[in-house]
Amino acid sequence: MTTSSVLLRQVRLYGTGEPVDVLIADGVIAEIGRPDAPAGAEVIDGDGQILLPGFVDLHTHLREPGREDAETIETGSAAAALGGYTAVFAMANTDPVADNAVITDYVWRRGQEVGLVDVHPVGAVTVGLAGERLAEMGTMANSAARVRMFSDDGHCVFDPLVMRRALEYSTALGVVVAQHAEDPRLTVGAQAHEGERAARLGYPGWPASAEESIVARDCVLARHAGARLHICHVSAAGTVDVLRWAKELGTAVSAEVTPHHLLLTDERLSTFDPVNKVNPPLRSEADVQRMRQALADGVIDCVATDHAPHAPQDKDCEWAAARPGMLGLQTALSVVVETMVRPGLLDWRGVARVLSERPAQIAGLPDQGRPLAEGEPANLVLVDPDTEWTVQGSELASRARNTPYEGLRLPAVVSATLLRGRITSREGKLV
Ligand SMILES: NC(=O)N[C@@H](CC(=O)O)C(=O)O
Ligand SMILES: [Zn+2]
Ligand SMILES: [Zn+2]
Predict the structure, then answer these.
(1) Is ipTM beyond 0.90?
(2) N or C: which end of the chain has fewer CB within 10 A?
(3) Domains along the chain?
(4) The overall pTM is greater than 0.95
């Protein structure tokens, strides 16, 4: 067996301090300082670039099994590695649904076979995402994939009794339930953020209260169950108030925001381009500002992409018929830099927190989001903060093309990603 080593020359840990050399051997950070390159070591010249723990995405749609025409575990893993990720959580709304251990184990094993990123399957909360009967959470939690997160994402677990039971089981299993917070009675036929723009265009509105009310309800349920709850894709300013209240009461609730809800508003509706259709919808400028502030404050814990690839026939059609969702894995870092680092809301230590450390803690991954220190697993990303790039959907690794950032110039590029000491991407290419 050959053991490979990598020497990262002149990198700045968390973007602070003087550049140092980092030697990686046998999958761990072996030495930080001025180590010599062992014979045969691969040397990467960091040139003062920023070293961070590899990113962890709690919310990815990889579409396998069932819609391999939109994305596969292989193409999605490629997008993840190029985006700086070392672990992603693949949502359960596949076809068939990942509501049993046969599917969740398949997703895990296929991810390991591809080998670019750890693909952790999310198990469904209810059978077939139908919201009626609990799926076999225990079997999934104890199978090869060791499922740690459960979600009916795409659908809200709407029945409060079903949600209560799911939270009670999750506590016993030591897993987390992630809620797609959308009261379906308030969003019947909804097409866009309820507000002036949707009204002018005649689109039925998706009110913020549909999100806020479910988050409030679930925080109450979680507190009484002594359970951990995670809120997917927070989009409305009022949800931040609910989260702050619940956290002050000691509720074990965490929350994510997507890159697109940090950058884009419902102003995009005027384009009529369904690439901008997403669930929850793009909201107002005030909501966007509140998302940024809450992420900086820690009321929102982390950034998750909600990477949602769709085949052209499901997107290139009229607005009402188009599926909701947009790509995110290869643009997340740049959008976080644009919306949080450039305006001074987060430093690079903060970027490590929201893209790596907090998500790893929320999901309970012991080997991700770890400190940059000797002896720690070498799940790492090297970031060049000074280079800008122009997004082109046709150049992204995803099988789908539905990026809302087409033609946009964004800051920061991923120079290299390392998974357990092995280089998975380098200078925008897979290794
Ligand atoms: N976000 C979306 O608009 N779509 C997601 C489902 C979801 O995250 O709710 C999808 O699966 O396409
Ligand atoms: Zn969702
Ligand atoms: Zn989703």
Answers:
(1) yes
(2) N
(3) 5-50+376-430 (2.30.40.10), 54-363 (3.20.20.140)
(4) yes
